[in-house]
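Weekly modeling sync, notes
Attendees: AB, CL, MP (scribe)

Item 1: holo prediction request
CL wants a bound-state model with iron/sulfur cluster before deciding which constructs to order. AB pointed out that an apo prediction alone won't tell us much about the pocket. Agreed to run with the ligand included and paste results into these notes for async review.

Input as submitted:
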Amino acid sequence: MSILTFRGGIHPRYNKERTAALATKPLAAPDELVLPLSQHIGAPAVATVSVGDTVLRGQTIAQPGGFVSAAIHAPVSGTVSAIEPRPTGNGTLGDAIVLTNDHQDTETSYSGLGEDWAQADAATLRDMVARAGIVGLGGAAFPSHVKLAPPPDRTIDTVIINGAECEPWLTADHRLMLESANAVVSGLRIIQHILGAPNGVIGIEANKPDALRAISQAATGTPIRVVSLAVKYPQGGEKQLISACLKRRVPQGKLPMDVGVVVHNTGTAAAIHRAVVDGRPLLERIVTVTGTAVSQPANYWVRLGTPVAHVLQHCQTELTPAGKLILGGPMMGIAQKHADIPVVKSTSGILVLQPKDATTRPASPCIRCGRCVDACPMFLVPQELGAFARLRMIPEARAAAALDCMECGSCAHACPAHIPLVQLIRLAKADIHAAARKKM
Amino acid sequence: MSTPLIVSASPHATSGATTPKIMWSVVLALAPATAYAIWLFGYPALSVIAVTVFFCVFFETLCGLAMRRPPTATDGSAALTGLILALSLPPGLPLWICAVGAFVAIVISKAVFGGLGQNPFNPAMAGRVFLLIAFPADLTRWLVPQQHTGDTLFGEPVTTLDAQGRITEYGLTNVDAITAATPIGLLREKGANIVADLPGNIEFLLGHINGSAGETSAFLLLAGGIFLLIRRVIAWHIPVAYLGTVALFAAITHLVDPSTYAGPAFHLLSGGVMMGAWFIATDYVTSPMFPKGRILFGVGAGILTMVIRLWGGYPEGVSFAVLLMNACVPFFNAWTRPKPFGATTATSGGAQQ
Ligand code: SF4
Ligand code: SF4
């Protein structure tokens, strides 16, 4: 099997060996769960329960607030104790449904289509995905049913399942591919069926040979192509993945569907399989808990809404002396002020670093070494974008394609002067958007 | 949670590369050639190197204080500039002239432009060219290397090559007496018919020739350059384009008129070409940011070096070639900008500084 790749990118230290071999364990549900109404891109969900209501595990507690939105379900049985603003992982307060767990796990009944799903039409299947509250589980959290409903003038010929898991430290997708290979493959076939896409591809980084084997085995007898990808960050970036797997380049400012492709994450594919075959909504996800400050790293099936502090307790993790707590991976994850935030649909990892690994170095002058340019998988000039951002040169930043930046962090990772390039480019992007709004 | 956690923007990991690590690894790569030069020329080389490096770091510190910038003296960039400048000067150069060179390199060509990362011209080459113009006699008085017989390093009578490459006995009691033109200077004066009398290529390769301290051992410079290439401190584009162009140029001119022009091996191994290709033209700050631009830069520097060597007013052209190409860097950067992923046209850049 030849190894496919893209141009640009970096080779960060992967640090996956700590958790790659650890089978996923269910994490005991906490006494209180916090389910933000906005765990996805798009309109917040609308609560359909009131304070004091008793709920069953699996019951819908919030409906989508629009087409681009997602439903939310109760991951445990219990009572609704509050609907109020709570801190979330992106640093803001957001309305959340707070559930008190009765620890009975009394479930609603589910009705799936079983293995006969191929009899159903696309609209029915798409509706099942929407009702299950599935969003992109790789971290993007874009409502999945929207990606399954391309405009009628777009023909999708290929569905790619992203099993690259290029973020260092994380092994959630790796474990899922090993432990639920059939669900991933079946999910892909369901997605292909919904989109009428003849080709299915599953791309996996070559550092996961066991996952490659497991998925290949699950895919035998299907026309699905399982490809081995170079171990390079950001191999799992949508455009990079499409470029590696299909040699197709998504034009600037366009979407994958404009080149006939839709990309879903492995976790999303497995969730779609469960939604369609078993009728089960999205109630939990695999979270890798790891990092230099975690003495018992693990992969857990965590109920959505579980406080991060609860997860860390189970991993013997001390947040003192002060280190860094990151939701997601080290490249694109968000550093948190405290652990009083819930695991949500997009939380692929909880990374806790010791203070010595978390100190930020002061920036020194740019030495024009070009490492950021070589690293950028979008072929931008991060050094120059950073300079434009600092000088608030908005038209110049826009002309230099600042909006193409996907904030993957490759440039800042490579920079020997420790210039906070991603932060600066975010500033430039915000400036560009603000200027555009002013003009309207 | 009493202790505040560290909150910063992503990414939360770095490659481990730092400016000081890069600068000091280039110094390390030059260490063998430097040590060899000291072994070869003895105290005259050691003093030039020590004084030049010292004054470069000294002026860097002074400028930092004067301009109220965070200290940069330990990042290695000034020491590296000093080392490169020293290696491009003749051993035995009066030490006060070395200090003047350091002043021009660090203060005039670097600090006044805004310090590290802001200077358009390679500071070491600017310093050298200034000295060459201001003190032409001192800058072209070349010491003949010592012929080591064993354990003697400084001051003992040794055997040396004379200007025609014949072995002659000299005493080291009067250092100034044993100067001679460099092979490349001889080539200019007497034409290629003396090439046959010149030291053989193997002697160039090993560095047993007279010249500036850093010009002497092409082999050790090549080894240092390859070390930097493997460590990914430098990219291949500039050295390969530069050396390739010099070789091609020399091959063609030699083919056209072998009696006037020396062949590629002579041009690659003599003078400052090896030093220039691996350590001077590759200076990040003063070379292009993009791969294609780096190739153009290397080709340009190669052509200019050869034009100056063969038909210019000076026997050696590396420093002039590099400085002239430094001036062209903004153009190269503008012409060779990468096209963003999926874009049909390159972006308009603007300020490259
Ligand atoms: S500029 Fe943006 S896309 Fe390019 S490497 Fe930096 S963060 Fe990634
Ligand atoms: S990597 Fe950093 S130091 Fe190098 S050119 Fe880019 S911004 Fe400048």
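Recorded for review: Strands of chain B lie at 142-143, 158-161, 167-170, 179-180.
Action items: CL to compare against the apo run; MP to circulate these notes.
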